[in-house]
Amino acid sequence: MTNDPTPEQFLPLPPATLHILLALAETDRHGYAIMQDVAQRTGGALKLGAGTLYRSVQRMLEQGLISEVSSRPAPEMDDERRRYYRITAFGTAVARAEAQRLMDLVKLARVSGFVPRRAQ
Fold first, then answer.
1. Is the peptide bond before 15 cis (omega within 30 degrees of 0)?
2. Nearest to 18 by CA among 58, 79, 51, 60
3. How close are the terminal C-alpha atoms of the chain, in Å?
4. CA-to-CA distance for 34 and 10, rounded, in angstroms?
5. Do 53 and 20 contact (CB within 8 A), yes or no?
6. Whole-number Å distance between alpha carbons of 34 and 112
7. Average pLDDT over residues 88-110
8. Residue 1 pLDDT > 80, yes or no?
């Protein structure tokens, strides 16, 4: 018998965690690029501060949701102090589980009349 965590054990995700996973879904990014992506995706509604970002990143590294990558851009296009992060397969599974949880919640809200039904 294994004691490996399941994606559902991480739900619900803190908003910062979900947004970081979304930012890493398409490509590896360094911290500042994650902050920029989150602000852009949310139209500025969510701006991760450095403290929130790096506390979240540290926790996500420990949980196995993301990993630090050693591959880097060409030196002339990079700052050697930057650390780059990548979503793991487990992080992807957790993000998918959270997306499903949120979709299920919206369905319940729609049935209760809190969310308008789509135009037919």
1. no
2. 60
3. 49
4. 21
5. yes
6. 36
7. 97
8. no
pLDDT at 51: 96
pLDDT value at position 81? Answer: 77
**If phi over 0 gives left and psi between -120 and 50 gives alpha, with beta otherwise, what is residue 113?**
left
Residues 106-118: pLDDT tens digits? 999 999 999 877 6
Output phi, psi for 113, to 5 deg: 90, 10
- Looking at the DSSP bridge assignments, the partners of residue 87 are 66
C-beta separation of 58 from 109 below 8 A? no
pTM value? 0.88
One-letter amino acid of 42: T
**Cβ atoms of residues 69 and 60 within 8 Å:** no
Burial zone of 26 (CB within 10 Å; 0-12 exposed, 13-18 middle, 19+ buried): exposed
